Amino acid sequence: MSDNERESVAPVEGRLIGRVRKERIVATIRSQGFMSSVALAELFQVSEMTIRRDLAELEMRGEIQRTHGGAVTEDPAARSKTPREPFFDERHLVNAEAKVRIAKAALTFVKPSQAIALDVGTTTFELARLIGPELGVRLFTNNLRIAATHAERNAEIYLFGGRLREKEMSLCGPVAVEQVRRLWFDVVFIGVSSITPQGIFDYSIEETEIKRVLIERSTRRIVVADSSKFDEMSLVQVANLQQFDVLISEAPPPPALASSLAAAGVEVVVAP
């Protein structure tokens, strides 16, 4: 626990039952704005694993938002502005020309015979359309649309199993996550719903688990996001800026975000 956290938060005497502990965790984070997992574990005299489980449940209930190393809260009015997840067909029509430009720029990062992971998303879908069988890549995805696109071309494609999200036509859940953990990829292309100086975010908790493991299991990690995603806020943090290597967009990020990306060592590619 940092000195500031020690000075501003009184220790809790004795262990609390789970329901009460979670209520007090929310109250503590709201009063401080941010609390680290380590500090919460020390404060409530439980393990960090218990705290992480508590924070995951509280995030699902919309009471806090997990960040790298801890959690923050927003006021209810701000949380109510978090948009719902638009369906794939809706998103595919938004900034369609920009997504094609981004996909073409992303294609330059694909090399022959590589193992390529493609995350679910409208921009990664456009990239999948451009990867021809002549490159001889092995393509891995949890997205049925991407898989179908490449099946038509007799390309080598591997599909992760799991629970079907019908609107997204994607497969996710513990089965898919465990399959990803057994593999290693040359490069992964990640789609996101927002990117801020705090990191990259997405709408779906289930999809986020897949994204995180894909990032962990890839040599090169590339985020593809059109400029409408800049400085927006979404439900779940996927990773911080230090956890990926390249951002490809059709426009430069705004100054504050660009500065954060540079500090994190992220290469920014603006699609021509």
From TrEMBL:
Stored SMART domains: DeoRC, HTH_DEOR
Matches recorded under InterPro entries: Carb_Metab_HTH_regulators, DeoR-like_C, DeoR_HTH, NagB/RpiA_transferase-like, Tscrpt_reg_HTH_DeoR_CS, WH-like_DNA-bd_sf, WH_DNA-bd_sf
Domain HTH deoR-type: residue ranges: 18-73
Recorded superkingdom: Bacteria
Keyword tags: DNA-binding, Transcription, Transcription regulation
Classification via SUPFAM superfamilies: NagB/RpiA/CoA transferase-like (SSF100950), Winged helix' DNA-binding domain (SSF46785)
Pfam families: DeoRC, HTH_DeoR
Single annotated GO MF: DNA-binding transcription factor activity
PANTHER family on file: AGA OPERON TRANSCRIPTIONAL REPRESSOR-RELATED, HTH-TYPE TRANSCRIPTIONAL REGULATOR SRLR-RELATED
Name of protein: DeoR family glycerol-3-phosphate regulon repressor
Organism for this UniProt entry: Kaistia hirudinis
Lineage, uppermost ranks: Bacteria, Pseudomonadati, Pseudomonadota, Alphaproteobacteria, Hyphomicrobiales
